[in-house]
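Researcher: Good morning. I'm working through a list of sequences from a screen, and I'd like to move beyond sequence-only analysis. For each chain I'm collecting a predicted structure so we can compare shapes side by side. This is the next one on the list. No need for commentary yet; just the structure.
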Amino acid sequence: MLLLRTRIRVEPALRTKVIRSLASLLGPVRASSGCMACHLYVDIEDDRLLMFAEEWVDEESLIAHLQADNTRVLLSALDCASDPPQVRLDTLVDSKGIEFIATCRDVDSLED
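Model: Good morning. Structure tokens for this chain:
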């Protein structure tokens, strides 16, 4: 699985425009072949900071997505950033859910 996170800070005057632009991508990206999830986040401590996060099954699906025309909307949003945007691609080889927290909290099972 691949996780592509794009983090941008925008000035208040551009915030609504950028959020609308990125929000318009959510449906099409989620409908793309190989997309597992796509979300837009606003930092609760700094509402000028946005994160567009995408999860992809494999690199081929992500590459096909990045070559599609609607990626121009994301690139346009990056142009509105007040600071250099942060783009990060992580490859995940393992994923755990709430059972991991439960295991960590079960002190008796950790002592065995």
